[in-house]
TrEMBL record:
InterPro entries: EGF. Keywords: Disulfide bond, EGF-like domain. Residues 38-70 form the EGF-like domain. This is EGF-like domain-containing protein. It comes from Rotaria sordida. Disulfide bonds join C42-C52, C60-C69. The keyword Disulfide bond applies.
Length: 258
């Protein structure tokens, strides 16, 4: 998956519709309290040399925002177009000679409701980091590799869809810039061959990490097709501008359900 652009290799075998769960995090910043006096009263007081221009309304100095100018955004952002620039967040789950990686979601800064498998079988509701599709049953593309080009023994995220709704990936990207354009994308594949089984689908959501978890963008992949050879496809591309005054952090939810 990519954020401008940020990429992951995710395998979703057989079966699945999608749902999402939302949780709340809060974003805090350290700010210096100082303000310009104009005769109006702002509560809380305008910070970082902000000016109280009318009751409870702050005019913020350059590079600061928020109702009391408590959020600093300067130094993080460029005025240039963000199209085709280097990724600001990229994870390909590492590489290694062992079929199953011993790494855990914490190593890649995400959480999941799925349980991790470190060997076969990989049951419903389990996931694994593997450098080749394991020989679990005759309908999987046994031996197929991850998406990343020239990635010797590269691991992929393999999730076996749970009959119950589950969130198989949730991560956070920090230091996003107000007003900038971002692109989110992900490569997915169905590891089941053309055997007429139920096809998976995934819902991707991008939300702010403010208390209301404002939804910025959402996309449903629809049914991920099966092929005679395992085929990676960029199923998701969401363009959005981050224009919320009270955060420069956003979060993603990727949910799977049989």
């Amino acid at each position: 998956m990519t954020m401008a652009p940020y990429k992951r290799d995710i395998v979703v075998p057989a079966n699945g519709k999608s749902t999402t769960t939302t949780t709340t995090t809060t974003t805090s910043t350290t700010a210096t309290t100082s303000s310009t006096t104009t005769g109006f009263i702002c509560y809380p007081e305008c910070q970082n040399n902000g000016t109280c221009i009318q009751t409870n309304t702050c005019l913020c100095a350059t590079d600061f925002t928020g109702s009391s100018c408590e959020i600093q955004s300067g130094g993080l952002c460029s005025d240039d177009n963000t199209t085709n620039i280097a990724p600001i967040f990229l994870v390909t789950f590492g590489s290694g000679s062992a079929t199953f990686s011993s790494a855990t979601p914490a190593n890649f800064s995400f959480t999941t409701t799925y349980q991790q498998a470190f060997t076969i079988p990989i049951e419903d509701g389990y996931f694994a980091f593997t450098n080749a599709i394991p020989n679990v049953n005759t309908v999987w593309h046994t031996g197929a590799l991850d998406h990343t080009p020239n990635d010797i023994d590269g691991y992929m995220f393999l999730a076996n869809a749970d009959p119950n709704p589950g969130q198989f990936y949730r991560g956070t990207v920090n230091n996003l810039c107000i007003g900038e354009r971002y692109e989110f994308s992900a490569y997915l594949t169905n590891l089941v061959g053309p055997f007429g089984l139920a096809k998976p689908s995934v819902i991707f959501q991008i939300r702010t990490s403010t208390s209301d978890n404002t939804l910025i963008g959402q996309l449903d992949t629809g049914e991920i097709p099966e092929y005679s050879t395992m085929t990676w496809t960029n199923h998701v591309t969401i363009d959005f501008r981050f224009s919320f005054l009270r955060a420069n952090i956003t979060r993603f939810w990727y949910s799977s359900e049989v």
